[in-house]
Structure formats: structure tokens, C-alpha cells
Specification:
This protein has 528 residues and is of the alpha+beta class. The protein has 18 helices and 19 strands. It folds into three domains: 174 residues, DNA ligase, ATP-dependent, N-terminal domain (DNA ligase i, domain 1); 192 residues, DNA ligase/mRNA capping enzyme (D-amino Acid Aminotransferase, Chain A, domain 1, 2-Layer Sandwich), CATH 3.30.470; 126 residues, Nucleic acid-binding proteins (OB fold (Dihydrolipoamide Acetyltransferase, E2P)), CATH 2.40.50.140. Helix 2 packs across helix 8, helix 3 packs across helix 10 and helix 9 packs across helix 10. It is globular. The structure holds adenosine-5'-triphosphate.
């Protein structure tokens, strides 16, 4: 079993021992300087090997562009106001910066703005110019890049000399990179294998890959499938432990307090402990889905609209009354789920679907889903375990139109009727090798006046630079576009451009880490 050697080497020149922030900044620069995934992973692994037990977590998180504290609530403006003269030489330790960020996250309530600025200014004053730049980008979320997560997990495996699959499994089950890195480096493979599902700690949800058609999905998976409606709402993972019910979104953000009706429904079920996976959305009086914005209004931070009620539809169960079900085949999990939800006849909690449909039946399920106003269906292999965090072929979504979730990289001022409004958006696809998102097109189509106003209000808050043409944005906002396909391009860096992209809606429930990759865009080349 490979583990790091403790105690860590004391970095020369550092008064308190421990790894210096400067070492992490250097590793981050090395990661950014290469496009090769293995070289990125090697740079990260070297930094992790040098970190002590209490430092591995923050070092891993920072190199993936994340903060172990989650959001610390420091905006761009606060940051720029708090920027003092840089220190001449590096002295900040990782431990000191991590402690300051924890203090920052804990400073809330009245008068907290000034206290937070003071705390931040103190840290930044001790940082060199290069360290300041790193901290500003880290706090501003600019270093957050979905693809880096995969590179980081490889690096953790290399540094701890354990199989990458073991690291990945623990990361998906804990939903946390920092904890996983620390477990791998301090306890090795055995500690990673001991990580299991814990009621109260959300796991990364299993995802679906696009199926090109219902027939193709059925052919691919054989007869042992379930075909379920694909409802267009928000993914929810609900954990119950006795009377305590907690709810997380797909990105593992806790939303328990905002969704009391979901909490109530799950608290009323005949069980003690449970982990349920499902989709929730707002329905109108006829049971048809309301506008997607209505559902999302319940998940936004400021404009929660309590007038809109959410209905949950569960399609999986990962744990029930002391029994972990992750590794059981879907057929078993669905039996357990059906028994649990059987009593809920008046307002069904079960995602509609048909198990082992006959030839015409699967098509009828798709027709019924579309007729009811839903997006399509998900075809699932009944023999597959729950693969947390994976987008595999065991779940295939079938929808009539191509859609992609992309990252907004810039926005141009409109002209004519749209002058004064931020209009044409630059669209980026995730780089699967961990680099910055790659631009694949622009669009100003599909935008209502309301949406243009929203863009004009919102995007300045995400700006990283201003130009006469518009704003360059930090990669933070995810937009869903519909498109006819893709074409080869010599103009764009990924060699591919969208055809006839139009905006469907913004996705506040998605992070850039969940955006579609440039490979997903390339996959549309043939079928476009
Ligand atoms: N019956 C269902 N089974 C699984 N997921 C479902 C189902 N109905 C709706 N969904 C939703 O569809 C998503 C699965 O598609 P995918 O994992 O590709 O996410 P996505 O890229 O956001 O898909 P899309 O953009 O089409 O909503 C799930 O995350 C879940 O939120």
C-alpha cells in the first residue's frame, strides 16, 4: 500500500513549517502551461507529495480551482477593493491561507462585509504579486474548471500510488475532492475502499449519455431495460435519517430549507433511513410541466417563489433502512423503490416508466412522455449498478432535439433594436483535457426581451475584462442551447463550430464542470 511519507519536509525559508502557498501557485502555473493531461497530473502529483496530512485537502481542492469551504461569499468588487501592495517574498503557508478562508466563510451577518474585507486584506498583504493573482482567481471561481477534476483524481492516484479507479470511486461517494485526496494520501487503498455511502452525505449522481434514437438505445442495451419518462426539472437527492430529511441538487448544493414540500413527502414515507434519487418540477393543475423557469425559481438564491409547488418523481434508491443498494442491479433497486412508494397512490412519487417493454411499448412510452409535455425518455439497463458520478451507457437519454449545455465566455453589446443591451453570447465547450473552455460559436438567437434585460443586468457581475465590443466573462454561467448540428471550423480552437445555435435557457443549476465537452460537439459532426 503506497502512502506519502510523514512528516512532510519543511520548506526552506518558511518559518512555521508546512507547504508554502507559493509552491501551489507554481504547480498551478505548471498545470496551466501544458495541454498534456499527463504533464498536468504530474505537476499536481508533485505538489500533493510535498503536502502534509492537514495540507493535502486544500492543496488538492485549490489545484482543481475549488475551495474546501465552498462559497466564501467574496465578490469581484470586494476582492479588487481589498488588494494591497504585494509582499516582496513568499511566506504564506497553505495552512494559514486555509485557516483564513475558513474564518472568512464563517464571517456572516450584520457588519460582516467590513470584517471580511479586513480579513481578506490581511491575507493578501502577506501575498506576493503572483500569489495575489492566484488567490483572486481562486476566490473569483476563475480557476474552477470541470475537466481539472479528472486530472486531479489521476494525480492523487499517482501521488498515493493507488489505482485511479479507487480514488474516483471515493470521490464520487463523498462528493469531495479534498477529503478524497487526504484519504488516499494518508490511508492508501485500504482507506479508500472503506469509504462507503453515508446517509447525510450526498453522492455524485449517475448521469445519462445521449442515445441517438430509441431504437438505437434499445438495440444497444438489449431487452433488459426500463424506459422511463425524462422530466425536465431539477435533479434532487433526498436523504432521510429518522425525522431528518435533507435535499441536495445535482451539483451537491444543499437546498433543504427551500423545498419544505419535498421534505414533507419523504418524511411521510414508511421507512427510517433512505437515500432517494429523482427529478422535481412544478406542474400546473392538469399535471403538465410548468415553464422550466418556474421550477428553477425555487432553486435560485434570491427570488425563491414559494407560490410554485414542486412535485418530486423518484427513479432510484441508493439506501433503505440500513441496506446499501448502490452495487445492486437497477432491477433490485426498482423493486425496493416500488415497495417503498406503493402507498403513495393519490400523488404518485414514482417516475412513470415501463420495465421490459415489448416492441411497440417502448415507443408508446416515448410518445406518452412527449404528449404530456416532457423532454423524452431515459432507457436504463436493469442489470447495471448505480455508477455514482458516471456518464455511462447504462443510462441513455432519448430526446427529439439536440441540446448542449455550454459555458458563456463573452457577450457583445447589441446594435439596432438591441443597442444598450448585452446580446450576442460567446459559447464555450468544456475541454476534456482540463484546459479552459474552448469557444465553439456565438448566438443571439432565441433571446426574449426579458432575457436580454437579464443578461444586461447579470453579466457585468461575471466580467473579467471590458472591451469596446462587450465583456469577456469568467467561465461561470451555463446556458442550454438547441442546435441543428456541428460543422468543421478553422476559426475556432476546437476545430468545430455549432450550426444554428439558439438559446433555450440559462441553467443556474449547472456548473461549468457539468457543461458538455468539445467531444460532445464533435460527436454531432456526423449526425448534424
Ligand atoms: N427518469 C429519469 N432518469 C434519470 N434522469 C432523469 C430522469 N428524468 C429526468 N432526468 C434528468 O435528466 C438528467 C439526465 O441527463 P444528463 O445526465 O445528461 O443531464 P443533462 O446533460 O442535463 O441532460 P439534459 O441537458 O438533457 O437535461 C438527470 O440528471 C436528471 O436530472
Amino acid at each position: 500500500m503506497g502512502t506519502a511519507r510523514w512528516p512532510p519536509g519543511v520548506v526552506p525559508g518558511c518559518q512555521h513549517g508546512g507547504v508554502l502557498l507559493a509552491d501551489v501557485v507554481a504547480a498551478s502555473a505548471a498545470v496551466a502551461a501544458t495541454r498534456a493531461r499527463t504533464a498536468k497530473a504530474a505537476a499536481i502529483a508533485a505538489a500533493l507529495r510535498g503536502a502534509g496530512p492537514g495540507e493535502v485537502g486544500p492543496v488538492a481542492a485549490w489545484l482543481a480551482g475549488e475551495l474546501p469551504q465552498g462559497r466564501v461569499g467574496v465578490g469581484w468588487r470586494t476582492l479588487s477593493r481589498a488588494l494591497p501592495d504585494p509582499a516582496p517574498a513568499p511566506s504564506l503557508t497553505v495552512a494559514a491561507v486555509d485557516a483564513a478562508l475558513t474564518a472568512l466563510a464563517a464571517t456572516t451577518g450584520t457588519g460582516s462585509t467590513a470584517r471580511r474585507e479586513a480579513l481578506l486584506a490581511e491575507v493578501l498583504a502577506a501575498a506576493t504579486a503572483e500569489e495575489q493573482r492566484f488567490l483572486v482567481r481562486l476566490l473569483g471561481g476563475e480557476l474552477r474548471q470541470g475537466a481539472l477534476e479528472g486530472v486531479l483524481l489521476d494525480a492523487v492516484a499517482a501521488a498515493a500510488q493507488v489505482p485511479p479507479a479507487a480514488v474516483r470511486r471515493a470521490a464520487m461517494l463523498t462528493g469531495r475532492l479534498d477529503e478524497t485526496a487526504a484519504t488516499a494520501l494518508t490511508g492508501g487503498e485500504r482507506a479508500l475502499a472503506a469509504v462507503g455511502l453515508r446517509v447525510g452525505r450526498p453522492v455524485r449522481p449517475m448521469l445519462a449519455s445521449p442515445g441517438s434514437s430509441l431504437e438505437a438505445a434499445l438495440d444497444d442495451l438489449g431487452g433488459e431495460v426500463t424506459v422511463e419518462h425524462k422530466l425536465d426539472g431539477a435533479r434532487v437527492q433526498v436523504h432521510r435519517d429518522g425525522d431528518v430529511v435533507r435535499v441536495w441538487t445535482r451539483t451537491l448544493r444543499e437546498v433543504t430549507d427551500g423545498v419544505p414540500e419535498l421534505v414533507e413527502r419523504v418524511r411521510a414515507l414508511p421507512c427510517r433511513t433512505a437515500v432517494l434519487d429523482g427529478e422535481t418540477l412544478a406542474l400546473d393543475d392538469d399535471g403538465r410541466p410548468r415553464a422550466f423557469q418556474d421550477t428553477m425559481s425555487r432553486f435560485g438564491s434570491d427570488e425563491a417563489d414559494a407560490g410554485v409547488l414542486l412535485s418530486p418523481f423518484f427513479f432510484d434508491v441508493l439506501h433503505l433502512d440500513g441496506r446499501d443498494l448502490l452495487d445492486e442491479p437497477l432491477a433490485t433497486r426498482l423493486d425496493v423503490l416500488d415497495r417503498l412508494l406503493a402507498a403513495e397512490e393519490a400523488a404518485p412519487l414514482r417516475m412513470p416508466g415501463v420495465r421490459r417493454p415489448g416492441p411497440g411499448q417502448a415507443a408508446a412510452v416515448l410518445d406518452a412522455a412527449l404528449a404530456a409535455g416532457h423532454e423524452g425518455v431515459v432507457v436504463k439497463a436493469l442489470d447495471a449498478p448505480y455508477a455514482a458520478g458516471r456518464r455511462g451507457r447504462a443510462w441513455q437519454k432519448v430526446k427529439p432535439v439536440h441540446t448542449l449545455d455550454l459555458v458563456v465566455l463573452g457577450v457583445e453589446w447589441g446594435y439596432g433594436r438591441r443597442s444598450g443591451k448585452l446580446s450576442n453570447i460567446h459559447l464555450g465547450a468544456r475541454d476534456p483535457d482540463g484546459g479552459a473552455p474552448l469557444m465553439v460559436g456565438k448566438t443571439f438567437k432565441g433571446m426574449t426581451d426579458e432575457l436580454l434585460d437579464w443578461q444586461t443586468r447579470t453579466f457585468p457581475g461575471h466580467a473579467r475584462a471590458e472591451h469596446p465590443w462587450g465583456l469577456e466573462l469568467r467561465p461561470e454561467v451555463v446556458v442550454e442551447v438547441a442546435l441543428d448540428g456541428a460543422q468543421r471550423s478553422t476559426r475556432y480552437p476546437g476545430g468545430v463550430a455549432l450550426r444554428f445555435a439558439r438559446v433555450l435557457r440559462y441553467r443556474p443549476d449547472r456548473s461549468p464542470a457539468d457543461a458538455d465537452s468539445v467531444d460532445a460537439v464533435r460527436a454531432l459532426l456526423a449526425g448534424g
